[in-house]
């Protein structure tokens, strides 16, 4: 597999997962390219590096000497590059930019922007190093695309199918055909990121169905920001039923010397008040655990490889990305 497309509902951490996957795939001396297409410079912020130019930059070294490069694709630059490569326009492309044609094509003309973005990703996947006989090994062992959200991913990836229908001959049709061949081959897969909540899981289920209907290959499901239950199984059941022993909780708080009335605010934090609050929190926690159990069952019905990443208490920084990459390697995703 050469192209890993990572998508997910907003707020599920798809960029973080894409970054961790790129690190994991680079382990052991491999080279990966991490690509973003939404113009937000999220990769630069995650890796704590300056804003990425329209050029491939090394941003991290993976365990075992591998390398992670990054690219933020700019649609305007991609169009000028496309015009130069396929039509040898050169300076004429710059003239088109001056008169506003490039802005029109990349912001107004439907679908053109997505065609350019995917075309640049395709070029990175197919690019090879010079070798004997003319063709050498690929420049990148894998390309990871931080793609648009799940609700837009099928149309984004399938836009070249529409181009094939519109362009009957010529380089545009040939390029579109080549892109779709790659996207529908065993060399590519779309991974979906979710959290154990109803709306993200439902969007993941719908996304898988849409991708399969468009004959696009679905890879794995990454369940992100997973939390472990704070209470053992029997206590969770009693918390859900509201039958936790109030006297036992109250006795524990009293023995620990916790609870008093605040003189400054007048808030009642006596052991009795704290006991009531804790029992309410326990009931809410039990309800969340039960909901997560149900959402896991729904994801299991997709019959796709599933990977889990924990919610990290310290937040996400470069060190956290390496930790998440190791988790993905342990589970066999990279």
Description:
The protein is an alpha/beta fold. The protein is 51% helix and 16% strand. Strands 3-4-2-5-1-6-7-10 form an 8-stranded mixed sheet, sandwiched between helices. It is elongated and about 80 Å long. This is ArsA-related P-loop ATPase. Residues 1-180 form the ArsA/GET3 Anion-transporting ATPase-like domain.
Question: What would the keywords be for this entry?
Answer:
Rossmann fold; 51% helix; 10 strands; 2 domains; single chain; eight-stranded mixed beta sheet; alpha/beta; 334 residues; two-stranded antiparallel sheet
In helices, the fraction of residues equals 40-55%
Count of distinct structural domains: 2
Strand line-up across the major sheet: 3-4-2-5-1-6-7-10
Question: What is the global morphology?
Answer: elongated
CATH superfamily of the largest domain: P-loop containing nucleotide triphosphate hydrolases
In CATH, the architecture of the largest domain is: 3-Layer(aba) Sandwich
Number of strands: 10
Instruction: Work out the radius of gyration.
Output: 25 Å
Number of helices: 14
Summarize the structure.
This protein is α/β, with parallel strands linked by helices and 334 residues long. The chain folds into 2 domains: 3-226 and 311-330, 3-Layer(aba) Sandwich (Rossmann fold); 233-288, no CATH class. 51% of the residues lie in helices and 16% in strands.
């Amino acid at each position: 597999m050469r192209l890993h497309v990572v998508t997910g509902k907003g707020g599920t951490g798809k960029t973080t997962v894409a970054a961790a996957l790129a690190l994991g795939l680079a382990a052991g001396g491999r080279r990966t390219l991490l690509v973003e297409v939404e113009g937000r410079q999220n990769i630069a912020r995650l890796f704590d590096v300056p804003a990425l130019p329209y050029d491939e930059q090394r941003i991290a070294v993976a365990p075992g000497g591998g390398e992670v490069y990054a690219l933020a694709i700019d649609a305007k630059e991609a169009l000028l590059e496309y015009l130069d490569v396929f039509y040898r326009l050169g300076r004429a492309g710059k003239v088109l930019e001056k008169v506003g044609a490039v802005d029109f094509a990349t912001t107004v003309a439907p679908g053109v922007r997505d065609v350019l973005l995917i075309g640049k990703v395709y070029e990175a996947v197919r690019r090879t190093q010079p070798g004997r006989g003319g063709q050498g090994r690929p420049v990148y062992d894998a390309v990871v695309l931080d793609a648009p959200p799940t609700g837009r991913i099928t149309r984004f990836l399938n836009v070249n199918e529409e181009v094939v229908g519109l362009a009957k001959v010529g380089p545009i049709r040939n390029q579109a055909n080549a892109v779709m061949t790659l996207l529908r081959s065993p060399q590519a897969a779309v991974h979906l990121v979710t959290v154990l909540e109803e709306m993200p899981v439902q969007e993941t289920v719908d996304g898988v169905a849409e991708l399969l209907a468009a004959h696009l290959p679905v890879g794995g499901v990454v369940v992100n920001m997973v939390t472990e239950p704070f209470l053992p199984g029997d206590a969770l059941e009693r918390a859900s039923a509201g039958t936790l022993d109030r006297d036992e909780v109250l006795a524990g708080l009293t023995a620990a010397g916790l609870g008093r009335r605040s003189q400054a605010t007048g808030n009642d934090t006596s052991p009795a008040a704290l006991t009531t609050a804790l029992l309410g929190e326990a009931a809410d926690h039990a309800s969340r655990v039960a909901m997560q159990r149900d959402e896991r069952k729904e994801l299991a019905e997709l019959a796709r490889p599933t990977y889990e990443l924990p919610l990290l208490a310290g937040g996400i920084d470069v060190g956290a990305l390496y930790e998440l990459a190791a988790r993905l390697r342990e589970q066999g995703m990279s």
